[in-house]
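TL;DR need C-alpha cells for one chain.
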Amino acid sequence: MAMQFMTIPHLGHHLEICFSVSNLVASIEYYRQLGFRIYTGGPDESYCSMKAQSVYISLFENEFIEKEFGNPFILNFRGGNIVKLHNYLKKFDLDFHYENIRADGTGNLLFHDPDGVPIFLDTSPDEERIDTIDQ
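>> reply
TL;DR here they are.
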C-alpha cells in the first residue's frame, strides 16, 4: 500500500507568540537580559518584536492583545501566502473571525483553535513570504 501525503502550505517563515505587557520598556530590558534582540518596533512605539535564536515574541502595551483578540496571547504565523492558506483552510470549515486577503498573497486571517486560542496568519506587503507548499 502506497503512502499518501497531504499537501500542506507553510503557515509562515516563523511563529511569534504575542502578548500584552504592563510596562514595555521594562519588558524589553528583561527579555534583552535573556538574550532577545529587537527586530521591529521598540520602546518608542506601542509594541516590540524580539528574537532569540529561532524564538520570536511580540510585546504589546495597554492590553492590546486582549482588546483586539479577546485572549491574553495569540499565535501569529508570519510570512505565509495568505491566498494559498485561505484556500487550503476553507476545506476544514474553520470559522474565520477576520479575513483580509490581497491578491499578492499578503493580508491576514484570524481563527481560533478548539480551546479558543487565537491563531493569526499575517503577511505584510514588504515582508519576506513563503509561497511554496510541502508535498
